[in-house]
Structures are given as structure tokens and as C-alpha cells.
Specification:
This protein is an alpha/beta fold. The chain is built from 10 helices and 6 strands.
């Protein structure tokens, strides 16, 4: 067998070892069979002479400092969460025009009318519900059925009229059989809700039910975790309470809702004109 490849590798290895030996790095390889008898060169033996030669060069070399990093200007800009979905110089009319005869999710297939929202476009108070029911789907207006009549009573108990506030929903089309909107339906429709709230810029938002609260607070927690508490939403105070439809099924919860509404009244400086219903 030809041994020339092995011989070439050996010569290269020996050349490298001689090179490192010339650098006073000591032997890379020690034969364990003779390591007790063989002297080993150490870097420490040559360290004083080496360092003496290096020190003058270090002392004479000018110190180099990194250039200063310029300070970045502080910009009073909205956070990423607040900036997303915002449209410059937006209006409710423009939002409704952009929504059009929406076919972006499956809810359009069985709807009769889109329920965009209604009320004062400059309202200090906005109520946000889950989605239209049967009566709303027929009339194209939010909260006009039995739950809507109860909401009207709640608003009047606060010393306001429906025309004083703005009322809308998370989804603008009626879910079949009044079921809860699916996550993808909420995700498709909620940007229009965000734009509505940004345009109106109310002092207070009242979420009626868990679906509205979850859509605006970006959470999956149940309403029992945050009902009656204040939250900050895009420079607006947001409070969560029960949906009027829930109160129709659970009249005993009306007292809790009235306590929640009194918190809103205190924020807006309202006084009752008549007793709660």
C-alpha cells in the first residue's frame, strides 16, 4: 500500500508543531508513556521577556474611543396598540362607506340589514353590545328589541336620552339563532368598531356583556373577572357590565348593573332624574 498520503500528513503536522514551538507555546502533544521524563516548555518561562517587549508598544499606542452615540429624540407618539387600526381624519360616514355591503365573513349570508350603530356622533358615552338580534336585523338599528327597551330605561335612569349616547355592537350582522359570534367573525368586524370608538372619542365606554369586553380588552377571561371595574382603552375609560338580555333572564342582577352605571355617572358628572328601573 502506498504510504505517501500518510507521510505527507505527518510532514504537515510536524511543520505546524515546529511553528507553535517557535511561538513559545509549548508542546501540543505529550507522550503519556514518557511524560514523567520529558521536560515541557511552558509559556510562563518566556512570559517576562515577552511582556517586556510588548509593554512599550502598548504604552505608545494612542487610545481609541468609540464615537458617542447620538441621543434619540423623544417622540410623544401613540403606542403600537393605540396606533393600529387608526385612520387619519376618520368619520362615521367614511367608516360606514368602507364597510359597504360587507361580505367579509359568513354572517352576511343570512342577514337582512347591517346594523352599523346609532346615536350622537360626539357622545361622551358609548354602549357596545355583542351583535344584532332579530328586531335589529329587521330594522337596521341597534338595541330595539326587548333588550333594547331595557337599555333605554337604563340610559334614562342615568339622566340621559338615547340620542345623547352612541350605541353599537362588536359585529354588525346578526349571528344565526342569536348565537355568540365566532372568533374569526369578531376579528373581521371589530376593526370597524375600533374606528367608530376612535372617531367618537367618548369619555366613557360601557361594554354590555362578555363578548364586547373581550373584543376591546383583548382577553378570553369571563365577565365575572372584570365586571364593574374601570379599564383604560385608548385614552378612554372603559367599564364592563351585564348585557340587558342577561338581565331579562336574571332580574336579580339589575342591582349590580345599577351600581356599575352609577360609577359611569360619577365620571361624567350626571345626576339621576328618576329612580332606576
Amino acid at each position: 500500500m502506498d504510504s505517501s498520503p500518510k507521510q505527507s500528513q505527518r510532514e504537515k503536522l510536524e511543520a505546524w508543531l515546529r511553528y507553535y514551538d517557535d511561538l513559545n507555546l509549548g508542546e501540543f502533544y505529550t507522550d503519556r508513556r514518557t511524560m514523567g521524563n520529558r521536560p515541557t516548555k511552558r509559556l510562563a518561562e518566556n512570559a517576562p521577556a515577552t511582556m517586556a517587549a510588548v509593554r512599550p508598544a502598548i504604552a505608545s499606542a494612542p487610545l481609541k474611543t468609540a464615537p458617542p452615540i447620538p441621543a434619540l429624540p423623544i417622540v410623544n407618539a401613540p403606542s403600537l396598540f393605540e396606533a393600529v387600526d387608526r385612520v387619519e381624519n376618520d368619520t362615521l360616514e367614511r367608516i360606514r362607506e368602507d364597510l359597504g355591503e360587507c361580505t367579509r365573513c359568513r354572517l352576511h349570508k343570512q342577514r337582512n340589514k347591517i346594523v352599523f350603530g346609532a346615536g350622537n356622533p360626539h357622545a361622551e358615552l358609548v354602549f357596545v353590545g355583542e351583535g344584532p338580534g332579530h328586531d335589529e336585523d329587521v330594522q337596521g338599528l341597534p338595541f330595539v328589541g326587548r333588550a333594547g327597551k331595557l337599555l333605554t330605561q337604563m340610559i334614562e335612569a342615568m339622566g340621559l336620552q338615547r340620542d345623547d349616547v352612541y350605541i353599537c355592537n362588536v359585529v354588525k350582522c346578526r349571528p344565526p339563532e342569536n348565537r355568540k359570534p365566532e372568533d374569526d367573525e369578531v376579528a373581521t368586524c371589530s376593526p370597524y368598531l375600533y374606528r367608530q370608538l376612535d372617531t367618537i372619542a367618548p369619555k366613557a365606554i360601557v361594554c354590555l356583556g362578555g363578548t364586547a369586553a373581550q373584543a376591546l380588552l383583548k382577553t378570553k377571561d369571563s365577565i365575572s373577572r372584570f365586571r364593574g371595574q374601570w379599564f383604560d382603552y385608548r385614552n378612554t375609560k372603559l367599564l364592563v357590565t351585564y348585557h340587558p338580555a342577561y338581565l331579562l333572564r336574571n332580574p336579580n342582577a339589575k342591582g349590580d348593573v345599577w351600581k356599575d352605571l352609577q360609577k359611569v355617572m360619577a365620571l361624567l358628572g350626571l345626576k339621576t332624574k328618576k329612580a332606576s328601573q
